[in-house]
Amino acid sequence: MAETTKTEREDRADAWFHALADRTRRDILRRVLAGEHSVSTLARSYDMSFAAVQKHVAVLEKAGLLTKRRQGREALASGDVEAVRSVGAMLTELEALWRGRVSRMDELFAAEASTSPTTTDPDTKKD
Amino acid sequence: MAETTKTEREDRADAWFHALADRTRRDILRRVLAGEHSVSTLARSYDMSFAAVQKHVAVLEKAGLLTKRRQGREALASGDVEAVRSVGAMLTELEALWRGRVSRMDELFAAEASTSPTTTDPDTKKD
DNA sequence: CAAAAATACAACCAATCAGTTGTACGTTGT
DNA sequence: ACAACGTACAACTGATTGGTTGTATTTTTG
Description:
The structure is a homodimer. By secondary structure, chain A is mainly alpha-helical. The first copy, chain A, has a domain at 8-80: Orthogonal Bundle (Arc Repressor Mutant, subunit A). Chain A has 5 helices and 3 strands, in the order ααβααββα. Chains A, B: InterPro entries: ArsR-like_HTH, HTH_ArsR_DNA-bd_dom, WH-like_DNA-bd_sf, WH_DNA-bd_sf. Chains A, B: It holds the Pfam family HTH_20. Chains A, B: Residues 5-99 form the HTH arsR-type domain.
């Protein structure tokens, strides 16, 4: 159950980051995270055709960063925080790898210091 | 000074997210965050030409997510955590917008409840 | 010195992307 | 009923992307 394969996760990440890699889309996401907006309302904010904005919304929707709900003739878009959090979590995982490197470097430093205490360059007195 | 304009910030974000929107690049970033690797060492890990991997490294470098240092004939790549943190911070800012929406919704709910206490659906007793 | 290794970079190609215009269809207001 | 509005989608275009091969340069190694 909930069998999320590695490539599925990477596929989603591809979609997430690609969706966020456009400033118009990031701006749209900001707005729909702050509150619901119809596609035409959003479109009025940008110097491009309605169809172009509609495409951007579609990209965000496919990436799962936003959901649309129909009300009469309007399509109301709303940002999905959980998805944004997931992207953030991915970045945190990257940071964890870095922390692993640092602790490994610390270990190495400790080991070197104990085996040969004078290994640290003695020429570095002044400059 | 350090006058960072709005578009400069957006330019960097474009580069960041675009760099992260490719799974090979994300994988390279993971490796170089965990420790220094030469470009050819990285290249051996992927089923593509050396030049292709070299290009991916260049994209990450231009985005500021990784730095290269020359040692002899090798180019050693190392991940930049600060940049990763900056990307994370951007996501956190998006989350903050959402929190703003929620508190505004809370206010609205409180106001509605005080003016017409029976507005809330009485059928919603159980779940 | 000559061969091998690691890098850099240009030129090319197929695929995708971000934008456009045009058309069609359901919904709203007069 | 009908005009205006909001949406959806197809078709097209120029720019960018992710990959390739080929060539040149520098550094190590035998």
